[in-house]
Amino acid sequence: MFLLLGHGYWGKNIARTFNKELYAICESNHSIHPQLKELYPHAIIYDNFDLALNDVNIKAVLIATKAATHFDFAKKAIVTGKHVWIEKPACTSLTEINELIVLSENMGVKVFVDHIMCHDSTIQHIKENIDFGEPLYFESYRLHQGLFQPDVDVLYDLAIHDLSIIDFLFPNQKLISKTEIKNYHVNILSDHAIINLKFESGFRATITCSWVSPIKQRQIFIAGSKLLLNYLDGRCNVLNIDKPIDENFSFENCKNGIELKIKQMPGLEMAKQAFINGIANNDNMISDIYQARRIQKWLE
Q1: Is residue 285 pLDDT above 70, yes or no?
Q2: Residues 175 and 251 both lie in one domain
Q3: Would you place residue 249 in the very low, low, confident or very high pLDDT band (cuts 50, 70, 90)?
Q4: Cβ-proximal residues to 9 (8 Å cutoff; 6+ apart), any chain
Q5: What is the reported pTM?
Q6: Is 47 helix (H, G, I), strand (E, B) or coil?
Q7: How far apart are CA 127 and CA 165, in angstroms?
Q8: Which residue among 14, 106, 137, 142 is least packed, with the fewest CB closer than 10 Å?
């Protein structure tokens, strides 16, 4: 039995995805309650989270509120013994994440974090089928006009997607240095940023993200010792390399370029199934609170 907390921008998508599996929705905006009752007549509508948590039929809480509220809401849910789904970013500090980890372990509940790109069909295919050899370089562009967030900057809103992809595709990378360039055009929160990461293995990453771009762009380049990959809005091209990359390297050293043909499944649906399986079977989840902690360490 699932309780959705928040029916705003992304909460609407979660509600549509869980739909019949929603037992209840908690929404403080009373003006949309009639709409919620029409869309989800099978669901109980609450306006008070503490009251909703007293319902013994609720086994898990789906938190889709502002980032700054995630910690408090998740903590309340965990201490009542409920599993938790949190939209990204999980929290706004490492201290908060660590506290949720301790609480969840003590209570024996799962905390899933919706790093949705880890459940993207193309990213999943890359993980399962592509051998980069030694990973060398990751570069991404995640650009958009808006949506400005009121409580976190563009790194926490957009770059976190690419950080989760790096953690998923290339696990156990130890960060040794980081540089950030942040730009402010609207308010005190950076709306355009570049983050450079250097890892102990020699692997490096550069992520560019923006809320003030005139275009929407989702593009990733990955270079490994065996192949090069270009991911653009779900389409993925791979070039094999027939010699090591050095100062004499050129595209003449690339061969057998192909475009991967991958059946696309809704990422949110895949995330839902991962969460349900994690609860029902005690399966390890790709994007959980432990992944959120690893990413938070890179951000702080």
Answers
A1: yes
A2: yes
A3: low
A4: 147
A5: 0.94
A6: coil
A7: 10
A8: 106
- CB atoms inside a 10 Å sphere around CB 300: 10
How many domains, the chain?
2
Asked if residue 231 and residue 249 are part of one domain, the reply reads yes
pLDDT tens per residue, range 154-170: 999 999 999 999 999 99
Contact 142, 161 (CB under 8 A): yes
Alpha carbons 220 and 191: distance in angstroms, whole number: 20
The whole-angstrom distance between residue 56's C-alpha and the CA centroid of its chain comes to 29
For residues 92 and 135, membership in a common domain is answered with no
Distances in whole angstroms, Cα of residue 62 to Cα of each of 10, 42, 238: 11, 17, 37
Task: Name the pairing type of β-strands 135-145 and 204-210.
Answer: parallel
What is the per-residue pLDDT across 4-23, written as a single tens digit (0 to 9) for each? 999 999 999 999 999 999 99
What gap in Å lies between CA 169 and CA 60, rounded to an integer? 28
Confidence category of residue 252, pLDDT binned at 50, 70, 90: low
Please, what is the end-to-end C-alpha distance for the chain in angstroms? 35
pLDDT in tens, 113-145: 999 999 999 999 999 999 999 999 999 999 998
Q: How far apart are CA 208 and CA 230, in angstroms?
A: 16
The CATH number covering residue 133 comes to 3.30.360.10
Q: Are 253 and 266 in contact (CB under 8 A)?
A: no
Domain that residue 210 falls in: 118-264
Q: Say how far apart CA 24 and CA 4 lie, in whole Å.
A: 6
Please give the torsion angle defined by the CA atoms of residues 65, 163, 119 and 99, in that order, rounded to the nearest 10 degrees. -50
Quick one: which H or E segment has residue 167? Answer: helix 160-169
Are residue 185 and residue 123 in the same domain, yes or no? yes
Judge if 186 and 231 occupy the same domain: yes
